[in-house]
């Protein structure tokens, strides 16, 4: 299993080692001990979701209030998506920046993003099936969104906007600056407190 940190701190790409023969492929796509040792933090899994999306569907940019927010481990079990991690932590050195990873059912790779980060993906294929392991249960009162079309964030979307399909909620989501003005965004300080609590004692 190979793990690399992305351009947004506290987010990582995880690439497992597939084992294949004439029968097919076996992949150990999540191991708590390996993930926690590499990330030097605990990742309790308290909810698991699956979404199925048509080509061109955009889900996000989504985030949850800090605390407790949600850390996520995201992988594509069928098809392919372009996955984005967006730094929305006010005061972060990379506030407003993003990184992206193609997740697909060939590499069987995954993205881990810590609490306080924004998440979005675009389905690159029909029936793109994404699995999410999440550190906290969904709480609609604490969930928010930012427009994936925000020109200040400027996500490098893989299709023309006319080809993209969004929910009504995502279409109406505020820009990053609007969300900041009304106090929706997490702060770097609050996120750091959460990371410190999640850290494994004695591991540096």
What are the SSEs and their pairings?
Layout: E1 2-5, E2 11-15, E3 19-21, E4 24-26, H1 32-39, E5 47-53, E6 58-64, E7 72-78, E8 80-87, E9 98-104, E10 110-113, E11 117-123, E12 128-134, E13 143-145, H2 168-171, H3 176-181, H4 188-198
Antiparallel strand pairs: 1-2, 2-10, 3-4, 5-12, 6-11, 6-13, 7-10, 7-12, 8-9, 8-11
Structure characterization notes:
The protein has a single domain, classed as Jelly Rolls, CATH 2.60.120. It has four helices and 13 strands. Strands 1-2-10-7-12-5 form a six-stranded antiparallel sheet, covered by helices on one side. The chain has a five-stranded antiparallel sheet with strand order 9-8-11-6-13, with no helix packed on it. A two-stranded antiparallel ribbon has the order 3-4.
What would the keywords be for this entry?
globular; alpha+beta; Jelly Rolls; five-stranded antiparallel β-sheet; six-stranded antiparallel β-sheet; 204 residues; 14% helix
What would the CATH topology be? Answer: Jelly Rolls
CATH superfamily: Jelly Rolls
Helix content: 10-25%
The run of helices and strands is EEEEHEEEEEEEEEHHH
Shape type: globular
Oligomer: single chain
Percent strand: 35-45%
* N-C termini distance: 20 Å
Mean pLDDT: 96
Q: Mind telling me the C-alpha Rg? A: 17 Å
Q: Return residue spans where pLDDT drops below 50 for at least 5 consecutive residues.
A: none
Structural class: alpha+beta
Question: How many domains?
Answer: 1
CATH class: Mainly Beta
CATH architecture: Sandwich
What's the story with the biggest beta sheet?
6 strands, antiparallel
Strand order of the largest sheet: 1-2-10-7-12-5
What is the number of helical segments per DSSP (H or I, 4+ residues)? 4
* Tally of strands: 13
